[in-house]
Design brief:
The chain is an alpha+beta fold. It has five helices and four strands; from the N terminus they run αααααββββ. Helix content is 29%, strand content 9%.
């Protein structure tokens, strides 16, 4: 699945989950399971709607995935204004408690259906797909612009060379690159990691390669193919460092 579609699905699931909480919190059920009778208008106390976070606030959200997405989307929108996918607004963290379901909320979902046994004479499953290319792919102008912005962020965070992989990862995490998106290059040679940005930004092919130097780090951007989900560490660079 292309990264942009994976990103859209993640954002949709986040918005849906929060919307479900809000809807559940809007009313309670009576003892019989029927909606409780509405109170007289004079007795109703209006509850303010949860305040929605701005883009800048999303970059400081407690959820690291939300922060990573917000930063990536903001960078892409800077490179191509109006063309980036918009992160749906989320309620402020201080208001999330207001969205918790009230007592006697929705019933427990029914048990999933029992799987149906398939006939034994079905044809065999199709064979493996064609071999996926693991060669670097070109970056678009927007991808290159976003890559430069990400690279500037990373380089600026390293005033000196990281002492080891743990120090390198700690700084990258502080920059809101998810730990699971940072991959050490195999082979036992000099320390080198790749940051896979395909899942958390609209840039379907964008990846960064970070290598410690004597005074900081070197950051190289490259395009990683998305068909077949090749491992980011297995992508062959056209001009490997």
């Amino acid at each position: 699945m292309p990264a942009s579609k994976r990103l859209l699905r993640t954002l949709a699931l986040t918005a849906t989950a929060l919307g479900a909480l809000a809807l559940t919190a809007c009313g309670t059920q009576g003892a019989t399971g029927e909606p409780a009778a509405a109170a007289a208008p004079a007795a109703v106390t209006a509850s303010p709607s949860p305040r929605m976070l701005s883009g800048k606030e999303l970059e400081r959200h407690p959820d690291p995935t939300v922060r990573a997405q917000a930063i990536a989307l903001r960078i892409t929108d800077t490179c191509a204004p109006g063309r980036g996918i918009q992160l749906p607004p989320l309620p402020a963290v201080s208001n999330l408690a207001e969205l918790e379901p009230a007592a006697g909320g929705p019933p427990t979902p029914a048990e999933p259906p029992v799987p149906v046994e398939l006939p034994s004479d079905l044809p065999p499953a199709p064979g493996p797909e064609a071999t996926v290319s693991h060669d670097e792919v070109p970056l678009t102008a927007v991808d290159r612009c976003a890559a430069d912005a990400h690279a500037d962020r990373v380089r600026a965070a390293f005033a000196t060379a990281p002492a080891d992989e743990a120090a390198l990862r700690k700084t990258l995490t502080a920059l809101d690159y998810l730990p699971e998106s940072v991959h050490r290059m195999p082979g036992g040679g000099a320390l080198r990691v790749r940051i896979d940005l395909r899942d958390l930004s609209p840039n379907d092919n964008l990846a960064l390669e970070v290598t410690p130097t004597a005074t900081g780090v070197r950051v190289d951007a490259f395009g990683a193919p998305i068909a077949g989900e090749p491992d980011i560490t297995g992508i062959r660079r056209a001009q490997a460092s």
